[in-house]
Structures are given as C-alpha cells and as structure tokens.
Specification:
By secondary structure, the chain is mainly β. The chain has one helix at 5-16; strands at 22-25, 35-36, 46-48, 54-56, 60-67, 72-78, 80-86, 89-98, 102-108, 116-119, 127-133, 139-144, 148-153, 161-169, 181-192. It has one domain (5-192). Strand 7 (80-86) and strand 8 form a beta hairpin.
Length: 194
C-alpha cells in the first residue's frame, strides 16, 4: 500500500528528529483513510461523513483542531495501525488522515504501554502526531510533547484493540506562517491489531 504524503511526513518526522533513521513497515488495518467529519454507523460498520468519505467504526481517529485564529475544525478518519522501527525498537501509530487536509495519530511503544494514562513522551511514547496542509502547498507535521494519552484498551496480539483518548496542546511559533493550530481536543482513537 502506498503511504500518503501527509502520513509519511508526520509519522517519520518526530522519530527521525531523535537522531535515528525511521524504517516504515505497513501493518495497516484498514484499506485507506477516507475524509470525513462525522460518523453515524453502529459498531462494525462504516459511517458516512460530511466529507464524502467513510469512517470505519472499528478503526478510527477523531478530534477537533483549534486554530490560532479561533477557528475549530472537526476531524474524523479511518485509522491504520502502522509499525515504525527506530533504532531497533518497534513503535506503532494508530492514525488516519483526511486526504490532503489533516492527519492525527497516537504513537506508542508496546513494551512501555498498558491500560492507563501517560504524559506525552517523545522518546519513549506515547504521544500525539499530527499534521495539516500548508496554505502554500505541502504538509506541516509535528507532535505534541505536552498533554496526555489514555489507553482504555490495549493489546498486542492479532485481534486485540488499542483504544483511548488524548490531549494535544501545541506551542505554535508566532512567526511561522505554517503553525496554524494551537491545540487538538476531544481526541479518540481505536485500532484493531492485525
């Protein structure tokens, strides 16, 4: 499966920033990330959203992007579970994107994760990765070093569920025209381990 421009930009950026090369292995649990702003299906199905795409109710990520201009943009997408090996350490991300618009995901190392609440930790995980399309083209990728990630379900075997909530406060640079968002709230995620 081809990795999209926004997923590739964001998933690799925080990991490579630690001084290691990132090797991406696709362990996707869904066929793709459709753009949508809401979901209305029951468990096991797909819900139609305002963006014209479908969001898988078994594998999803959603939240609200808060702009520095006071705007709010709802986000919902089918999620994929991806494995990235960094310095020999398996690291996973449950995330999705709205094509050419937003990306949101939770990155974690399974050996350091369980059910519970964790402060964001860019070295050991978990943390929130996110990205958005830049006004002039291309993608702006970042990760939140602040906030928390709460796992309400966690497993590592095929068929297990990784699910929970998160907060992602950001520290936008006032002179960076691509730093458009100050926070992502109401983050919910769910991925089934393939």
């Amino acid at each position: 499966m081809k990795t999209s421009w926004l997923i590739a930009a964001v998933l690799a950026a925080p990991l490579i920033g630690c001084g290691d090369e990132a090797e991406t292995t696709d362990t996707s649990t869904a066929s793709g990330a459709g753009g949508s702003t809401s979901s209305s299906a029951g468990a096991g199905g797909k819900g139609s959203g305002a963006g014209g795409g479908n969001v898988d109710t078994n594998n999803y990520v959603r939240g609200t992007f808060h702009g520095i201009d006071g705007s709010e943009e709802a986000f919902a997408a089918t999620a994929q579970l991806r494995e990235v090996t960094v310095g020999g350490v398996p690291t996973f991300s449950c995330g999705g994107e709205q094509t050419n618009r937003f990306l949101l995901g939770i990155t974690y190392q399974p050996d350091n994760t369980s059910v519970g609440t964790f402060d964001s930790d860019l070295l050991m995980g978990p943390y929130v990765v996110l990205g958005w399309a830049k006004p002039g083209g291309g993608a702006h990728g970042t990760s939140s070093s602040q906030g928390t990630v709460t796992f309400t379900e966690f497993g590592t075997s095929a068929g297990d569920v990784v699910a929970g909530t998160a907060t992602a406060p950001l520290s936008p640079e006032p002179n960076d025209p691509d730093d458009l968002y100050e926070e992502v709230t109401d983050i919910e995620f769910r991925c089934v381990v393939p």
